[in-house]
Amino acid sequence: MHENHSKKNSITRPIDWNFPGCPRRLKDNGGNVMFASYNLLDRGEFVRPSGNDLRKISWDGRFPGEARKEEPYLVSDWEAPEDCDDLLRQWASKRKKVKLTIENTNINKFTCYINNYSSTYTGGFGDIEYSIEWIAYKSLSVNVTKKIENGQEADKTSEERL
User: Fold this and answer.
1) How many Å apart are CA 79 and CA 63, to the nearest integer?
2) How far apart are CA 126 and CA 141, in angstroms?
């Protein structure tokens, strides 16, 4: 499982960063159809599709302490758990848009943000256990039509991306 952003200058310079271990369970939900509900007085409730909710990916994991840095389950070079924890906290607080790829799944270059992140120091080995949830990035375009002085719409439109 890897993340396409680096620890060194993690806010601006993209390169690969790997989580040290794979979670046992990965939850992938969202993208489901949302419905608008209408209640007509003499006809009852009606629902109509109104879009899709955002996809969310989450898991619980552990950054192993130095006493566990030679464990065979590590899928990348060992890094201090505090450094990994700090990196994810930076991404969350800076609202860093990242591209997440999880090998052997259909999650490939999933553009997202950290929606929730929490961590806990555990055990006597310097481990940090964490829980993370990623939420899909969705672009938003707003078309602006400029009006000329006589109240008619101009042919020229501009697009702004948010």
Assistant:
1) 8
2) 46
Residues paired with 95 in a beta bridge: none
Tokens of 93: 């607080």
Alpha carbons 3 and 138: distance in angstroms, whole number: 19
| Structure tokens belonging to residue 106 | 């259909």
The full DSSP string for the chain is: -EESS-STTTTT----EE-SS--S-EEEE--PEEEEEEEETTTEEEEEEEEEPPPEEEEEEEE--GGGTT-TT--S----HHHHHHHHHHHHHTT--EEEE-TTSS--SEEEEEEEEEEEEETTTTEEEEEEEEEE----EEEEEEEPTTSPEEEEEEEEE-
Confidence bin at 95 (pLDDT 50/70/90): very high
Please write the tens of the pLDDT for every residue from 22-57: 788 999 997 788 888 989 888 899 898 888 889 999
User: Cα–Cα distance between 154 and 161 in angstroms, integer?
Assistant: 21
Tokens of 4: 């396409």
Which residue is associated with the tokens 């707003």?
Answer: 142
Nearest-CA neighbor of 97 among 84, 85, 115? Answer: 115
